[in-house]
Amino acid sequence: MWVATRARRSEALSRERIVEASVAILDAAGEAGLTFKALTERLVTGPGAIYWHVANKDELLAAATDAVVAAALAVEPAGSSAQDQVRAVALGLFDAIDEHPWVAAQLSASSWQATAPRILESVGRRVGALGVPQRRWFTVTSVLVQYILGAAAQNAANGRTLAPDTDRGEFLDAVATTWEELDPDDYAFTRTIADQMREHDDREQFLAGIDLVLAGITAGEA
Amino acid sequence: MWVATRARRSEALSRERIVEASVAILDAAGEAGLTFKALTERLVTGPGAIYWHVANKDELLAAATDAVVAAALAVEPAGSSAQDQVRAVALGLFDAIDEHPWVAAQLSASSWQATAPRILESVGRRVGALGVPQRRWFTVTSVLVQYILGAAAQNAANGRTLAPDTDRGEFLDAVATTWEELDPDDYAFTRTIADQMREHDDREQFLAGIDLVLAGITAGEA
DNA sequence: ACCTGAACACCGTTCAAGT
DNA sequence: ACCTGAACACCGTTCAAGT
Description:
- The structure is a homodimer.
- Chain A has 12 helices and no strands.
- Chain A is mainly alpha-helical.
- In chain A, helix 2 (15-33) crosses helix 3, helix 2 crosses helix 5 (57-74) and helix 9 packs antiparallel against helix 12.
- The longest helix of chain A is centred in the last third of the chain and has 25 residues, at 137-161.
- The N and C termini of chain A lie far apart (67 Å).
- The model of chain A is unreliable at 1-9 (pLDDT under 50).
- The structure holds a DNA duplex.
């Protein structure tokens, strides 16, 4: 009753607990849901207590983003070949951003600078193992990371657009139908691929993109 | 004096003028700068007048984004080969987002849905011209678009981080130095490429990425 | 050192009233 | 049909006061 109660009721406030609560709120309610009111209610304090540990809301978002990325990269990727490991790291980030869609917006914001080395390092080591000559490491790794984050961001954005209860099949069908109804003169191509969009799988397509880039790297151009 | 004055003083309010003013404010002051106060001052009205033409702020941001993207894609890309045209379209978008960095955040937000067909169409036509078999059009085009937007978004984010008066060389040097001071055990790779980051050119690297993807497409994998 | 909570300036949005 | 501008609810941040 004594010690246990104290621990359960209100563990001392800390940066870690604040970031943890922020991630939970962001997951549940999105970026718009993360307010100091929501935070203080969840942590049972006043705003001043939070400002003691964190400079402002931007820093909070950056810290929450870094926490999610760090967790995603902490999983040691299975797969023996360097190619498989690149795919595993890429998919790990893709899934993490898919589960925490608000991360996408943050990664193309200023919090980027703190998290960049983590991602560069994890992808870059495998680029080295791929046999890419050292003078191309920076370029090749940057391209891979840009593709990974770009694709993951758009996937997350698509997911966010949906109301939580919508059927994915219905949604894709609705988008495809919209595309098919576009002006044939201006949108001939988009109309043609509408049907392929109807049946595509996001993760499969993401991996196809990784394979495309890997094929380009192996082809040894650029 | 009579008609001219009326025209100069306050051209009738319209959705178009509101979007135009929004783009100008976003360019000058970023996303945080676009407030209804700033808009009403610039357009010399009250907030109610703006709400008559536009549903809410989100719609305003989406419309501003679409205007910038449409303008970037309206330029007919020079270059004879399909490969050159892909590069030209890609670079057009890259530069547009570089000039209007706030577009980056919007393109991975929900406004995406309205602008997507424009970009798909423009890139996709050249993918067709590349000789890619039709069943792969959707995948290949999506990969290209994801890379283009992902890379452009990160480039824009990097630009935004800088104070407007900072020297680019100094900034890159500072980041590279930070990387070189990372823990050698955890960041062996990142330390190795720090020097390449110091001297890289963003546009060149972006095009190298396009070439990598194009090489992958030509290699015929995936 | 850490926390409280009232207070401040500001923001998006609404709406009754005007023309 | 289009515009005005006061009013509302809410938000991030500060700070004097407490322990």
